[in-house]
UniProtKB/TrEMBL annotation, chains A, B:
CDD domains: HTH_HMRTR. This is Hg(II)-responsive transcriptional regulator. SMART domains: HTH_MERR (SM00422). Gene3D superfamilies: 1.10.1660.10. Keywords: DNA-binding, Repressor, Transcription, Transcription regulation. The keyword Flavoprotein does not apply. Residues 3-72 form the HTH merR-type domain. The keyword Transcription applies. PANTHER family: MERR-FAMILY TRANSCRIPTIONAL REGULATOR, REDOX-CYCLING DRUG-SENSING TRANSCRIPTIONAL ACTIVATOR SOXR. GO terms for molecular function: DNA binding; DNA-binding transcription factor activity. It comes from the Bacteria. InterPro entries: DNA-bd_dom_put_sf, MerR-type_HTH_dom, MerR_fam, Tscrpt_reg_MerR_DNA-bd.
Amino acid sequence: MHYFTIGKLARQAAVAPETIRYYEKSRLLPPPDRLESGYRVYDSSTVKRVRFIKEAQALGFTLAEIADLLGMTEDEGADCATVNAKAQEKLEEIQKKIGTLRKMQKGLEVLAQRCPADEQPLSECSIISHLYGAEE
Amino acid sequence: MHYFTIGKLARQAAVAPETIRYYEKSRLLPPPDRLESGYRVYDSSTVKRVRFIKEAQALGFTLAEIADLLGMTEDEGADCATVNAKAQEKLEEIQKKIGTLRKMQKGLEVLAQRCPADEQPLSECSIISHLYGAEE
DNA sequence: CTTGACCCTGTACCTTACTACAGGGTGTAG
DNA sequence: CTACACCCTGTAGTAAGGTACAGGGTCAAG
């Protein structure tokens, strides 16, 4: 089966090799197998894992939170009550993020629609007012 | 009308006063009016603005991006084509974020459901596989 | 009319998440 | 058999986003 050295992994996941080593040190990636030379070797599942990390990060999760998220599925001997509680917590957080994004979306749509017909000042910020139900 | 000093504003928005001053320096907040003493004075719209900044940040937007977002509604004399193009761009970004969050949500739900009936190893990470359609 | 909570500016420091060497070994194409 | 791209460890530096003083003025309650 085809394997990846750190450089190839990094290219596939669109990050720098240093970032991979940094993630390893930070326990976001498990210590990989090594060739006799000491070179790290990875398989394609690591590519997915790194991409996941990057996407979660773009959504405002910190590396610590992401480690937690990934840890949930990997802790051998984590009991179900704990995993479920954590999952529930994360689900609520995600639900809230989606809700806020929806409101921003609405605000931007209003802003865009208002524009071609113009004349009204844009100064009343429709993004903010959609989030907080302000004087529209 | 009731006004806020920096400390009250900070408490209302759940940040530190230093953060408010930092946002002012970073042009995320306009220079406020001052009392004769030099004290900054704000009104409630600034509370909303600061909350907006914090929420946008929690969604992975940088302060520079947020400044851009807020700037869109305030640039006197920004032409509509430009505002619309920017809004469209942001809308796509937001749509993508929502999509990714939905997939994470699905993954976490599967993880949680799988747990009480247990026995299967959790080791196949359902969060990641939901994002990348891996071997489920 | 003072005391405690608040405000000011300015500078220095901190954490997170990288990024960039330095100094040295590896692997493969020509 | 060498040249060039790649890998290793370790340490230091960077950018973003704050946070923490120091040194000094303000304001309202008692």
